[in-house]
TrEMBL record, chain A:
Domain ABC transmembrane type-1: 20-208
Similarity comment text for this entry: Belongs to the binding-protein-dependent transport system permease family.
Subcellular location: Cell membrane
Name used for this protein in its record: Amino acid ABC transporter permease
GO biological process: amino acid transport
GO MF term list: transmembrane transporter activity
Transmembrane segments: 20-44, 56-76, 82-103, 145-169, 189-209
Keywords: Amino-acid transport, Cell membrane, Membrane, Transmembrane, Transmembrane helix, Transport
UniProtKB/TrEMBL annotation, chain B:
Family, similarity comment: Belongs to the ABC transporter superfamily.
Protein localization: Cell membrane
Entries under SMART domains matching the protein: AAA (SM00382)
Name of protein: ABC-type polar-amino-acid transporter
Tagged with keyword Cell membrane: yes
Reactions that this protein is recorded to catalyse: a polar amino acid(out) + ATP + H2O = a polar amino acid(in) + ADP + phosphate + H(+)
Membrane topology label: Peripheral membrane protein
Organism ancestry: Bacteria, Bacillati, Actinomycetota, Actinomycetes, Propionibacteriales
GO-annotated molecular function: ATP binding; ATP hydrolysis activity; ATPase-coupled polar amino acid-transporter activity
Organism field: Aeromicrobium camelliae
Length: 221, 252
């Protein structure tokens, strides 16, 4: 009995690994795009650039307030009604990027603001330009402060990427469902899929914790 | 005073925070090479006056001139004027304010590279010279967290000096330090005064004021209450408030 499960798992594994690879891809792309936008939003908020304020606030509020599942559905089904039809893959990346940008902009902004005012004053008093103060003092320290939280969020968005199954993107959960539909062995295949998620998230969590300890070394005063 | 030679002049400088006059019409001329100590009760506007000098606070009215160059602070100060001013006026804070993610050497070299355009080698050479002067060349590669408060403050002094300022402002540089660590900072400042640096030092270290300063200024309520040679002000204060304040700090 037991060995039967393992031989089934061995049979399903290649498809599930294909799905896992898609999950990793959309997560990675969303993180790259979302983090760049999130950093820009955080910098704009930090500099209190009036120009960017209200679109930025809107994006952040919508991105954080809207359930990721709703965001996915809206991007996929809603954008065609305004003349923009995206392939499933692109729609998922766009929706997850928006969610990522909204959350990470707040995480990064909190990191930037945690840099002590005294250091900014000292940099000002030394005659450093606004952009140099950001580049050499605020951003490196702010990102370092934000990094553990950002990495934690990265693990979260990887889990959230499973919601893309609702749009039929062939990621890990979709693959598991379609195997389940063919074999009626939903529980077995979902267990294997769950283990594959854990095989990524648990080691990633450990790495984050180790990284966090290493980063805090110079900063303890 | 020596009006013609004054390197720094404040005229009727005022700064108000939320309806409260932190600095209320201060005029001051400081001669090149002069060391001025500033004392006064907490909240009397000492920090705000210093911060107005390098425009960390922009005064509401009045003029500030450094080396004869007037800064009209009522309009907006251009970024260029601001940089020019700040590279000539160095400032040391009570809380050191080193950049904790950079080594001691980087802390001192980076501003030279960014503000004066020195090359990395040139900046590092100058930084090492200054670290030697403050007795910390062995700490060049350490991070600030690995330095004592006194060492951090000496690094902060070296960092400000590295830009070759003409005037140095000190805002209670030893107040955050244990007495013996304060002494090593005061020794560095004493040595700096001996080299002829123009200095304004807000401090409660009466002994330092008495032995190093050329002039002692007493502030109260955003104004200069009295000023003169330190011994004269300390031995024969003209105002009752000065007497009260002096006996309060002597009792500590
Ligand atoms: N950034 C600020 N915002 C509001 N009030 C301030 C600010 N800085 C100083 N003050 C007020 O101005 C007055 C003078 O402060 P300060 O110059 O720090 O005095 P001192 O350095 O002599 O203790 C105080 O009443 C203080 O509360
Ligand atoms: Mg003060």
């Amino acid at each position: 009995m037991k060995s039967a499960i393992f031989s089934d798992w061995a049979e399903w594994l290649p498809r599930l690994l294909d799905g896992l690879w898609v999950s990793v891809q959309v997560t990675g792309l969303s993180l790259i795009i979302g983090l760049v936008v999130g950093l820009l939003l955080a910098l704009a908020a930090f500099a209190r650039t009036r120009l960017l304020t209200w679109p930025a606030v809107l994006l952040v509020e919508i991105g954080r307030g809207m359930p990721a599942l709703v965001m996915l559905q809206l991007v996929y089904f809603g954008l065609p009604s305004v003349g923009l039809t995206l392939e499933t893959y692109a729609a998922v990346v766009l929706a997850l990027s928006l969610t990522t940008a909204a959350y990470t902009s707040e995480i990064i902004r909190a990191g930037l603001r945690a840099v002590p005012d005294g250091e900014l004053e000292a940099a000002d008093a030394l005659g450093m330009s606004r952009s140099d103060v950001m580049r050499f003092v605020v951003i490196p320290q702010g990102l370092r402060i934000a990094l553990p939280t950002l990495l934690g969020f990265a693990i979260l968005i990887f889990q959230i990427s499973s919601l893309a199954f609702s749009l039929g993107l062939p990621e890990l959960l979709s693959q598991a469902y379609s195997i389940g539909a063919n074999t009626f062995r939903y529980l077995d295949v979902l267990t294997l899929a769950g283990l594959l998620y854990l095989a990524v998230t648990i080691p990633a969590g450990w790495l984050v914790a180790r990284f966090e300890r290493r980063l805090s070394r110079h900063l303890t005063t | 005073m020596k009006q013609a030679e004054s390197i720094l002049s404040l005229r009727d400088v005022e700064k108000t925070f939320a309806g409260h006059k932190a600095v209320d019409g201060v005029s001051l001329d400081i001669a090149r090479g002069e060391v001025v100590a500033v004392i006064g009760p907490s909240g009397s506007g000492k920090s705000t006056m210093l911060r107005c000098i390098n425009l960390l606070e922009v005064p509401d009215s009045g003029t500030i001139s450094v080396d004869g160059k007037n800064l009209d602070t009522s309009g907006t100060v251009s970024a260029r004027d601001l940089t020019q001013l700040r590279r000539r006026v160095g400032m040391v804070f009570q809380s050191f304010n080193l950049f904790p993610h950079m080594t001691v050497l980087r802390n001192i070299s980076l501003p030279q590279e960014r503000v004066l355009g020195r090359s990395r080698e040139e900046a590092d050479r100058r930084s090492m010279e200054l670290l030697e002067r403050v007795g910390l060349q062995q700490k060049a590669d350490a991070y600030p967290a690995k330095c004592s408060g006194g060492q951090q403050q000496r690094v902060a002094i070296a960092r400000a000096l590295a830009l070759d300022p003409e005037i140095m402002l000190f805002d209670e540089p030893t107040s955050a330090l244990d007495p013996e660590l304060g002494l090593e900072v005061l020794a560095v400042m004493r040595q700096l005064a001996d080299t002829g640096m123009t200095m304004i030092v807000v401090t409660h270290e009466i002994h330092f004021a008495a032995t190093v300063a050329d002039r002692l200024i007493v502030m109260a309520d955003g104004r200069i209450l009295e000023q003169g040679p330190p011994q004269q002000v300390l031995d024969d204060p003209q105002h009752a408030r000065t007497r009260t304040f002096l006996s309060a700090i002597k009792d500590r």
